[in-house]
Description:
By secondary structure, the chain is mainly alpha-helical.
Amino acid sequence: MMKPMHSWRLIFAATTLLLLVSAGPAAGKQTPKKQARLNSEEQKIIKYLVADWGEDYSVTSVDIAMAALKMKPSDESRFRIGSHIKAHPELHEIIRRWGWVTLVLTPDEKLIARTLVNAERDAKPQSTVSEIAKSVGITEAQTDQGLSMLERYEIIQRVASKGAGYKVVTRYIKWEPRLDFIFHKVSLDGGRQFNTN
């Protein structure tokens, strides 16, 4: 009789330990980094976007919202706002339908990403910063800045190779063409600007 009772206790103890370990933060998974809080100006951008998305079929991006609210352009603010959008797809159906990438990247960043995606997808040699700049129609400094933002958003990763020295993260090569990097800017007579896809 004692043997089954002892086995039952062992099973109970093991199950309890397993439940405690899997429920805790040290369950072998990394806990996500604590997201930086948005300041009041950045919160206004989010509020503007949520109200604007879907009106006139808009898929307005962060940079256009910043311009509309006359907020000084800042990659740091845009990164925090974009990270907030990425972490909160429940904010609006537009995020879930079109993806956070569509909403947080500037037109130049989308064109840089598209250039890299197309080259990798077509197995072409990696473009240099100069070649990317020429194809997008921007300076090399602007290209470097765009590449840096794409890396921060984990769309590309740095590699030791010829060319610009970046590789597109696999999940961004899957669609042909990548809808995340397609955009159309609309300007109405009244001055309102927004993106559509």
